[in-house]
Design brief:
- The chain is an all-alpha fold.
- The chain has one domain.
- The chain has five helices and no strands.
- The protein starts with a helix and ends with a helix.
């Protein structure tokens, strides 16, 4: 039961590619669904690893969540960080795709 850094970022890329298969208006909702049901958020061991590997450790603040009021604050933090990582990758891949089509 290990989650290396590279595996986390491969999963983020795979999730972003799944999101990009949807209509652009559904990207955020699709990403929310994928991350909300993901084992990296559901299981505390993985959630702690997400917090170690994410580029968006403070993303939970954007949710305006009171971490003292939730049952598992680590899961809330991991969810918001992972969702932001996925959406960052979606935008990066989409931008790269636009430049590829222009050339």
């Amino acid at each position: 039961m290990n989650l290396p850094h590279t595996l986390y970022w491969e999963e983020i890329r795979d999730l972003a590619e799944t999101v990009l298969q949807e209509d652009e208006q559904l990207w955020y909702d699709t990403a929310m669904e994928l991350v909300d049901n993901h084992q990296y958020v559901i299981y505390t061991f993985y959630s702690l690893r997400v917090l170690c590997y994410t580029d968006n450790l403070q993303a939970w603040r954007d949710l305006d969540a009171d971490l003292n009021a939730v049952h598992c604050p680590v899961a809330v933090m991991a969810y918001s960080a992972m969702l932001t990582d996925v959406m960052d990758r979606v935008h990066m891949l989409n931008t790269r795709d636009v430049w590829t089509r222009v050339e």
